[in-house]
């Protein structure tokens, strides 16, 4: 890789602030009120940064190895998951609220039938806790779904276990809630399954085959997209035939829907492919191709309104694309240090945060035009 390949395109992204957390930030997310950015490091430390200045407000040692985090949109609660197999809940000031242990409610291997989670059925102390690979809050912020090894565990608004899935054939890699239904979808290397949660049990499930790394419902609930290990994107459209877009140079880790569910951005190489879901599309159509990265696309996020897309690459470049413009290049970009692990828009859509493997966290200002 030469220096010329790492030249950025478009205007230079304006920097609001920079902060170094001295660890690989594996996950980051803005608080719902937009006042803070939470960052979880690979070693397990959790930082809370001031959204305006980037200064550290506080930090805690959350896990024996950090993996993932997510804010509840309505409860003002931050959930984190770690290599220690635990889920911890925090206030907006990182005061500890609760510790959730999936191993305490997941049935032993000999009893892998789906059942209602019951605190009386504790797992033996000798059982190893699987990593928390993914966690996600329901749209109303009341229920928390957690991927613990081969199981999905759902907790209710009282932090009580509500549902435990049967064991999937392999470790669950990704989770997402349906935007309109009480339905959670889990994806892994041997397929994807969707569970409808009604009351205290699963009302049904749907299964699909494939090796999936990422999964996301469109905001309108009409399409479910999954990035695949095999260099493809699979689309399920209830009531219509499945679609599969193949031919990507590498595995598809990053996918993102726009706010209306009309466009799906996908990685799977050094080019961002954007598929339009309009009319009969994307069947029989070609994607819009966006260039600006020298290595693979590692992170994608649409702004909460409009058609501005942020992307991050393995080479450390962060790009902003305006999909209303007839150009393949970004409107602005910047080069950081190390692979981009997260790009995240603040609630107002005025700033986008980019985290890098070097420990660098940057807040960029969105160009007005």
Give a brief description.
This protein is mostly beta strands and 369 residues long.
Walkthrough of the structure:
The protein is mainly β and 369 residues long. The chain has strands spanning 11-12, 14-20, 25-30, 36-41, 45-50, 56-61, 66-71, 78-82, 87-90, 96-100, 132-137, 144-148, 151-155, 161-164, 172-177, 183-188, 191-198, 201-208, 212-217, 224-228, 232-236, 243-246, 255-257, 263-266, 272-276, 288-290, 297-302, 308-313, 317-322, 332-335, 340-345, 351-356, 360-365. Helices cover 0% and strands 48% of the residues.
Treating each run of at least 4 consecutive H or I residues as one helix, how many helices? 0
> How do the strands line up in the largest sheet?
1-30-29-28-27
What is the share of helical residues?
A: under 10%
Distance between the termini: 32 Å
- Average pLDDT, all residues: 90
The number of distinct β-strands equals 33
User: What does the largest sheet look like?
Assistant: 5 strands, mixed
Secondary-structure class:
mainly beta
Instruction: Output the radius of gyration.
Output: 20 Å
Poorly predicted regions: 111-126
Shape category: globular
Strand composition percent: over 45%
